[in-house]
Amino acid sequence: MSTGAVGRICNLGFDNNGNGRDAAVICTGTQTTSTPGPTLPPDFATIAPIDCNNTITSLRLDPGPEEGLVLIQNGSLGGDNFGTICAAGFSAIEAATICRMLCRNETANAIGMSGKYLTTAASYPVMLSGLKCPAGATSTNDCKHNGWGAAPSYCTPNTAVSVRCSQISLTPPPIPAPFVVCHLYVANVFFTYTDVASASLLSLYGTYNETTCNFTKNENSTTVWATVPYIGCNSVQTTNATHVIYTSMLYRNVTAVSGVYVDVPYIIPVECAIPKLKEVTAALLPDARTAPPITGGDSYTSEVKLYRSYNARGFSSEIAPGDRLVVGSRIYARVRETSPLNVRLTVRNCWASDKSDGTGASYYVVRNKCATDANTVFRVDEKNIGINFAVMSFTQTVSTQAYIFCDVTICTPTDPDERCLQTCGTALANKQF
User: Fold this and answer.
1) What residues contact residue 136 under an 8 Å CB cut-off, 6+ apart?
2) Fewest Cβ atoms closer than 10 Å to its Cβ: which of 4, 156, 226, 356?
3) Residue pLDDT, tens place only, 121-151
4) First-to-last CA distance in the chain?
5) Where are the beta strands (DSSP E) in 64-207?
6) Running DSSP on this structure, what letter comes out for residue 98?
7) What is the pLDDT of residue 18?
8) Taking a C-beta distance cutoff of 8 angstroms, is the pair 329, 390 a contact?
9) Contact residues for 408 (Cβ-Cβ < 8 A; gap 6+)
């Protein structure tokens, strides 16, 4: 047939209806031939049509029935070729599509998750990634994806999609139950992996200066933990009748992969309480003639040290092992709060004893915040109290060691509690310093 010509051909086999009619065809243009292009892989997640009246075999939730790891079958491969769906790009629209395919009615509450059912996910390959469905899709046959078995390297068992089709419970999930260890001016907060799946989910709540706040987080094979300093971060200092309290707000974020969430965030208050009342022990007072070794006792935040002199520049000539002292000579005890915390120290009682546990013969140099005999008590600053007293001996003929003990109270600088003020007695006319 020439270009532009009109003719007749028999319809036999043309439309396969055998009705004897002619088929009219008009051909225009120049006839050309071309080589067929390559066959491209389908861009659709083609699976067997879903029939809610029969058992669904190409898609399931493990463990199911309302929630589980999504396992989808590539029927073109034959056999039991199930695999997971990568969470990247997966949203509530795709979750609702999965639930419709599983013949669930609560698709409005469908939610996609990742990071769950990791053991099961590790035993399957990634079957689909980049799954994108139109709103209202009833099957993955309506959706696009990256191709069967084609998945980026970040698609791992941790990013395998799980779906919940049932209505979201109005009961909130369990509150994380960490345990806290407060020591050396930091709070260490420990979580199990059930409460926090990764250390990357932990942060401090609110604003803080990252250059001054040494907040850290770590994890090992069993535990996730965060370390929150009392100072330099966003801790709030408060006080009650018995303790100084430092409160920090720890934030546990949610697990999210491209908009797919596993859980809900939590703000967790972390409190560390330091008792106001404390006993400082193990500061040695030399005997009358030979100075024994001196140790600076440290009861968490406080210590006592001994010096020969004190002036406007501070304490000097610390008494060292081997020094000789004469009974009746005057020395200085420095009671000090050693932490970097903003607190005030008050001395209630200080006494010398001939027993290392403080139970033997005693001589008080400070009692009920008042200096005894010719002794004096003075405040150097908020964290330092000085005591001037005379060297004593518990025997007349034999050199013996004497031990100094002090009861201290640690408060916030503005605490009005009477125990937090270095006053002698309770009368308002008494001197306060």
Assistant:
1) none
2) 4
3) 999 999 999 999 998 888 888 898 988 888 8
4) 119
5) 67-73, 82-85, 111-113, 126-128, 162-164, 179-183, 186-192, 202-204
6) H
7) 44
8) yes
9) 277, 278, 279, 280, 302, 335, 337, 345, 346, 347, 348
Q: Check if CATH label 3.10.250.10 holds for domain 59-164.
A: yes
pLDDT tens per residue, range 17-29: 444 443 333 333 3
Domain ranges of the chain: 59-164, 179-275, 277-420
**Under a CB-based contact definition with an 8 Å cutoff, are residues 393 and 356 in contact?**
no
Which stretches in the chain have pLDDT values below 50?
Answer: 1-43, 257-262, 281-300, 426-433
pLDDT at 224: 93
Q: Outline where DSSP puts E strands in 31-160.
A: 59-63, 67-73, 82-85, 111-113, 126-128
Number of H helices, E strands in the chain: 2, 28
Name the phi and psi angles at 228, rounded to 5: -120, 110
CA dihedral of 77, 78, 79, 82, whole degrees rounded to 10: 40
Tokens of 252: 């546990």
pLDDT score at 14: 40
Establish whether domains 179-275 and 277-420 are of one fold: yes
CA distance linking residue 73 with residue 57, whole number of Å: 8
CATH of domain 277-420: 2.60.40.4100
Query: According to the model, what pLDDT value does residue 126 have?
Result: 92
pLDDT of residue 23: 34
Domain covering 179-275 assigned CATH 3.30.420.240 in the classification: no
> Which pLDDT belongs to residue 190?
92
Q: Which tokens is 79 given?
A: 């056999």
